[in-house]
Amino acid sequence: IYTVRLKLRSPSFLDVNDVFDFCSDTDASKYADWSPHNTKGETRDYIAWLKRKASRESFTWVIEKTDDQKVIGTISITEMDYSGKIATIGYTLSKVYQHKGYATEAVEGLIKYLFEDLFCERVQAKVMPENSASIRLLERVGMKKDALLKKGAYCKTACVDIYLYSITKNF
Question: How far apart are CA 16 and CA 3, in angstroms?
């Protein structure tokens, strides 16, 4: 998947150093369901896990800047419903590259791909209420808040409340 400045592609073991840079950051993992990586071995295992779990229902791309081939984050279809019409997405971006439009560009690119190439009718995302930056991003790409799900997701050690945001094909 290509956008103006980005390439969303399958992860590779050659990405270990770049992925470790953001996966070892406590800020980057604050709202993720994974804990910060302590070693590049953990990052290598994470990439292996992403490659093993890739399927029709779930897939993760790395977000690569096309100007320097630097991997700056990940973006995923975390869940695809049985019909293939409803996709749930998630993303993580290195804090060094936040507030520069990269996350917005990646999410817009994935939404376009899901609607135009996979023929999804709805794309949704789950976000913790305190993650105001991600809420602003979802609203910027046209998503609307559908619901508050009490204890709607498990994150690290506990069930947490989440907002469900979505956009439909005929927006």
Answer: 23
